[in-house]
């Protein structure tokens, strides 16, 4: 593994033994839509994201999905950390939202690094704490924030040049509600002239008005 990869992950200050161990690993390139794990799968290793974005979803008994968090470069997956430290199987599903490049740290190497490298251990626990806060934030929004506010916040977070490329079902999954509810809220916002819709695209026409409705 090249030193620039370690820098991208925030691991450039590892001790030399840890750097040598991680240096043996080769990044993998996976396409968008690739499933990294499903509920019930055994945790085989610790994933370090180099590029792209991975969505981690909780799937209910009724088949409805909720986006728990996304894993971006330099971030880690709390489900993977829990699985490795607590010897638990995955309870969620991880899907590559874009083409991704990742490094898989085998379980045995991860356990050794956690025991021998204080800097690697600190990285894992800091990332774990940050990710756990993200999950708690999602649960708080689902429990206490209105659907329209959650939808607007998601649109504003995901927009690029005023456009969001996502279906109604994908938006519903991101905010933990049904497709029908999202469709009704988007239609209401479109009638107000705040946004417009096309197949798989939502275009924001009045960002200020949209933001004000989320207050």
Give a description of the structure.
With 215 residues, this protein is α+β, with helices and mostly antiparallel strands. It has nine helices and ten strands. It has helices at 3-9, 16-22, 78-86, 107-116, 118-144, 147-158, 168-175, 179-191, 207-213; strands at 28-30, 35-37, 45-51, 54-59, 65-71, 93-96, 100-106, 163-165, 195-198, 201-204. A four-stranded antiparallel β-sheet has the order 2-6-4-5. Helix 6 packs across helix 7 (168-175) and helix 7 crosses helix 8 (179-191). The chain starts with a helix and ends with a helix. The relative contact order is 0.13.
Helix percentage range: 40-55%
Please give the largest β-sheet. 4 strands, antiparallel
What's the overall average pLDDT, rounded? Answer: 85
Going by CATH, the architecture of the largest domain would be: Sandwich
Q: Could you tell me the strand content as a percent range?
A: 15-25%
Order of helices and strands: HHEEEEEHEEHHHEHHEEH
Shape descriptor reads: elongated
Structural class: alpha+beta
What is the count of structural domains?
2
Topology:
Layout: H1 3-9, H2 16-22, E1 28-30, E2 35-37, E3 45-51, E4 54-59, E5 65-71, H3 78-86, E6 93-96, E7 100-106, H4 107-116, H5 118-144, H6 147-158, E8 163-165, H7 168-175, H8 179-191, E9 195-198, E10 201-204, H9 207-213
List keywords for this structure.
single chain; 215 residues; alpha+beta; Jelly Rolls; Arc Repressor Mutant, subunit A; 2 domains; four-stranded antiparallel beta sheet; three-stranded antiparallel beta sheet; 9 helices; 10 strands; elongated
